[in-house]
Amino acid sequence: MRAWLARMMGRGASPPPQEQRGVALDEAGVWRAAFDEARFLSDAPRRLQEAQTQMINHLGKAYQAHERLGRQYAHLLQGVVQAADLCEGLQSEGQAPAGKEALAAVQRALLDLLASHGVLRWECAPGDPLAEGCEVVGIEERDDLPEYVIASMVAPGYRRPDGEALRRPRVTISRAPAPTPDAAPPGSASSPESSTPGAAQESARPSETGEPAET
After folding, report:
1. Pairwise CA distance, residues 65 & 77, whole Å
2. Smallest Cα–Cα separation from 15: which of 23, 3, 25, 24?
3. What are the tens digits of pLDDT across the range 180-214?
4. What CA–CA distance (Å, rounded) separates 158 from 64?
5. How far apart are CA 126 and CA 120, in angstroms?
6. Of the candidates 76, 116, 141, 183, which lies 20 to 30 Å from 157 by C-alpha distance?
7. To the nearest whole percent, how much of the chain has pLDDT over 70?
């Protein structure tokens, strides 16, 4: 390389042919490396865009898988809730004591399973104020409760500690009984004689002696 530079600058005699070939090969390698680097730099934006596209595709597939698993998980929890409701309903249908105990044990196991996943039972008692999130399914006339409070719980609800409702409780609210019409006072009823048309005509007819009829 120094010999070639010396020749180019006129500092010495021309190198022998073998050295000239070596210098030419060195120059070709330098130019080839420069072209390769330029090609790599020119392809860098395209490669970066391809990498970004692949990353976006992978993230989209991961999100879809997450959404699918979330829906399946929610369906699974709903199935556990329905099974717990079924056990509770069967206990109130006149089962034998042994059967009630078995159903109660299964229900407790299901409720424990829900609690382990952060889902707690949401109950309402008669007389409680109507809480936000309750589903009103009916109205009951109750004289022992204030108006517009919970009269009874039709089905319990289930929610997470952060307030997210898996199912809202179904309740009925109270209403004062409708007033009954008051009975008429005893003195306000007219006598049977004065209430008939014949009696009124008889009182207005003159008497046979020519005297006016008493009114």
Report:
1. 18
2. 3
3. 776 445 555 444 444 444 544 444 454 444 454 44
4. 27
5. 20
6. 141
7. 70
